[in-house]
From TrEMBL:
The chain crosses the membrane at residues 12-39, 45-70, 91-109, 121-144. InterPro entries: DUF7598. The lineage of its organism: Eukaryota, Fungi, Dikarya, Ascomycota, Pezizomycotina. This is DUF7598 domain-containing protein. It comes from Hypocrea jecorina (strain ATCC 56765 / BCRC 32924 / NRRL 11460 / Rut C-30). Residues 251-260 have a biased composition (Low complexity).
Length: 267
């Protein structure tokens, strides 16, 4: 796979296979809805058969979106939610999904469905094409890949001989790290929910939380003892800020008493 010519040929082959894959998936989705319309309604469990075909058509739509993921937000969504269908992985899971779709569609032809020959031919062609191109996607995924460098078939399909591993980009996040962070957030929410519930139960049961006793400052108590009057024990001294010496330093409007000094001119 180190040959630029081989990688350039892989670009052409994989792009052609991409177009054929999208057409096959669209045809398979249409075939599923044709089978839903023509399913035998007189059977007791026909509803489950319709749901099966509906889920297969949803799978076809998902695979089409993964093949036509040109927008950046679609690529980021696939990397987070469907990593095996993103540009960080090869085409093997896509081929496996197409094989499952083809087997399901061809299996429905085993029933005695009353529909036109043209519709029956369309359903048959959709099933056969899904099997063929699903197998080709798996084969090409193993041919055009380089596991030593981490290059997949999607990388070669996008860049050809200039292909690089998509895991080198900064927006790639390993699944283990993202899952561990997600589990940690879920665990913290779970614990906080029960913690709040316990607090509410204690409040409703009449058992409020009692805070710890305040810190007693013995140094402050000693200072209060020193502020007692030396003449009459137990009598508190007035606050030092109210002493006439300190009141003179303030403005005249802030004096505690107007008779603290003689109200007369010094001259």
């Amino acid at each position: 796979m180190n040959s630029p010519g081989l990688r350039g040929a892989g670009l052409v082959v994989l792009q052609a296979l991409r177009v054929a894959t999208v057409i096959t998936l669209l045809t398979s989705g249409a075939a599923c809805w044709i089978l839903v319309i023509n399913v035998e309604k007189n059977k007791p469990y026909f509803i489950f058969e319709c749901f099966t075909l509906f889920f297969v058509s949803v799978l076809c739509s998902l695979l089409v979106v993964s093949e036509l993921a040109f927008a950046q937000f679609i690529k980021i969504y696939l990397r987070r939610m469907w990593p095996v269908l993103s540009d960080h992985h090869g085409l093997s899971w896509l081929g496996l999904g197409m094989i499952i779709i083809g087997c399901n569609i061809l299996g429905m032809l085993n029933h005695d469905l009353k529909m036109a020959s043209a519709l029956s031919s369309l359903v048959l062609a959709a099933g056969i094409l899904a099997l063929i191109f699903g197998f080709l996607n798996i084969v090409c995924s193993f041919i055009w890949c380089d596991r030593k460098e981490g290059i997949t078939s999607r990388d070669i399909r996008a860049n050809g001989s200039l292909a690089r591993s998509q895991r080198e980009f900064t927006d790639y996040e390993p699944p283990s790290r993202s899952s561990s962070a997600r589990n940690e957030k879920t665990r913290s929410k779970f614990v906080s929910m029960f913690w709040k519930k316990d607090k509410e139960e204690d409040y409703l049961n009449g058992q409020p939380e009692i805070a710890a006793p305040p810190y007693i400052n013995h140094h402050g108590r000693d200072l209060e003892a020193q502020s007692d009057s030396p003449i009459i024990p137990g009598l508190k001294r007035p606050d030092t800020a109210l002493h006439p010496m300190n009141t003179r330093m303030n403005s005249r409007s802030s004096r505690s008493s107007r008779y603290s000094e003689a109200n007369m001119s010094r001259f």
